[in-house]
Design a protein that fits this description.
With about 60 residues, the protein is mainly β. The protein has one helix spanning about 50-55, and strands at about 5, 30, 35-40, 60.
C-alpha cells in the first residue's frame, strides 16, 4: 500500500496546476461545486509531484 497525498481544503484555491503534473490517471479530481481538488486515495502512489507545484502548499504526502 502506498502513502497518499492529502489536500488541505482550506488552503486549496482550485488553480488545478496539480492536475497536469500527476503521472497517473484519475488520481487528482477537480470538484466544480467546491472549486477544490480532491485525491482518489486508492489510486495515489504518493510520488509527491503535485505537492511540489502547489502554490498554496495545500497538498502534502502523508498517511
Amino acid at each position: 500500500m502506498y502513502v497518499s497525498v492529502r489536500v488541505a481544503k482550506e488552503k486549496c484555491i482550485g488553480c488545478k496546476i496539480c492536475l497536469s503534473t500527476c503521472p497517473e490517471a484519475n488520481v487528482l479530481l477537480y470538484i466544480k461545486e467546491e472549486k477544490k481538488v480532491m485525491v482518489n486515495e486508492s489510486r495515489c502512489k504518493g510520488c509527491g509531484l503535485c505537492v511540489t507545484v502547489c502554490p498554496k502548499e495545500a497538498l502534502t504526502v502523508g498517511h
